[in-house]
Design goal:
Layout (H helix, E strand, L loop, with lengths): L23 E6 L8 H10 L26 E9 H12 L39 E9 L7 H5 L5 E3 L5 E3 L9 H5 L6 E2 L24 E2 L5 H4 L6 H5 L5 E5 H17 L6 E3 L12 E5 L19 H27 L1
Length: 338
């Protein structure tokens, strides 16, 4: 895919830095997410992100933020399902090739597994409750930090850059607010920030507040300022169930496959991975997810494609067409002189 769609291999090694770093990423295990939204709160507090609307509960679910956006870099979705949909999810899962995922293990740099100092969750039961008649699917969504990042490819100012950890970050002081990156993201993650007067979330009204970096594009940075200090992202550090795991990308993918295998052994055939396939339309993602239903149920595209993927082919086709037109013009000119 070349320069237009990102590096072919590890983006961290290809970012142009003078030293090597392992690619970092998330593994979000939705099967043990309890929907507490601690990750949303931690993300907003650490990054000083403005409030989205008046935070009233939405009519469609118990959610009060709605979706990812310029002000909400972590979003926990609530999906209610009945018996029929659960059976459909398990049937579609049986048709998939075995994908593979992990049990609760130690955090990077932590002496014992768990969410709080001194708390060991290595023997905790991570099997989701058996509720064949009804269940809630809860999932903490975030920027995917794609291997081939469409937002990065199309940015005309260089405001988006690839960090030494393989993540994609916006520099607000360089961003001119053109919005090209918004259309370039196949996941609809990145968004321009306004004060709520342009498009208030869910038409729930405007909140009087200071809005930093108004008019610029904003999204998750994977807490880049924390990574450079050797700290894990705020959301992963806060998650009480370790549903959000952080570490080296390869380790996260390996853990994801182990966890999938574990759930399949428990009979949960609906469990599947999202973003772990390096052959997909974005070259795999830095944020890998374990899902319990089709991606569309969680608001994720089933086959994301970086928009610049076909540009080389388009350029070649245009060049051939241009060459043909020039040849036809030359022949017509020469034929007219006879």
């Amino acid at each position: 895919m070349g320069l237009l769609s990102g590096p072919e291999a590890d983006p961290a090694a290809d970012a142009g830095w003078g030293h090597d770093h392992d690619r970092k990423g998330f593994f979000t295990d939705t099967s043990i997410c309890i929907g507490c939204k601690a990750c949303e709160v931690a993300c907003k507090e650490w990054n000083h992100n403005p409030q989205d609307g008046n935070l009233q509960i939405m009519g469609s679910s118990y959610d009060n933020t709605g979706s990812l956006g310029a002000n909400t870099w972590r979003h926990v979705a609530f999906v209610e399902q009945g018996k029929d949909r659960i059976e459909e999810a398990r049937e579609t899962g049986r048709k998939l090739v075995s994908l593979g995922m992990p049990s609760i293990g130690p955090r990077s740099g932590a002496s014992t597994p768990g969410g709080r100092p001194g708390e060991d969750l290595s023997r905790a039961d991570t099997a989701p409750p058996d509720t064949p008649e009804f269940r809630w699917l809860m999932s903490s969504d975030v920027c995917k930090h794609c291997t081939h990042a469409g937002c990065l490819d199309v940015c005309p100012t260089g405001a988006l850059f690839r960090t030494e950890f393989g993540t994609v970050v916006v520099q607000e002081d360089i961003c001119n607010g053109c919005g090209t990156c918004v259309g370039g993201c196949p996941f609809g993650v990145i968004e321009r920030r306004d004060d709520g007067t342009v498009a208030p979330k869910g038409q729930r009204g405007r909140v009087q507040q200071d809005v930093p970096n108004k008019g610029t594009a904003n999204k998750c940075t994977l807490c880049y300022d924390r990574l450079v200090e050797g700290e894990e992202p705020a959301c992963a550090k806060t998650c009480p169930t370790t549903s959000i795991k952080f570490g080296d990308h390869d380790d996260m993918v390996e853990s994801a496959h182990e966890r999938i295998a574990q759930l399949h052994e428990q009979g949960m055939t609906e469990a599947r991975l999202y973003g772990a396939n390096p052959e997909d339309g974005v070259g795999g993602t830095g944020s890998v997810f374990l899902l319990l239903d089709e991606p569309e149920v969680y608001g994720l595209p089933p086959d994301p494609q970086v928009p610049t993927k076909d540009l080389p082919h388009m350029y070649r086709t245009a060049a051939v067409a241009m060459g043909g037109m020039l040849a036809a013009t030359a022949l017509a000119f020469l034929g007219g002189r006879r």
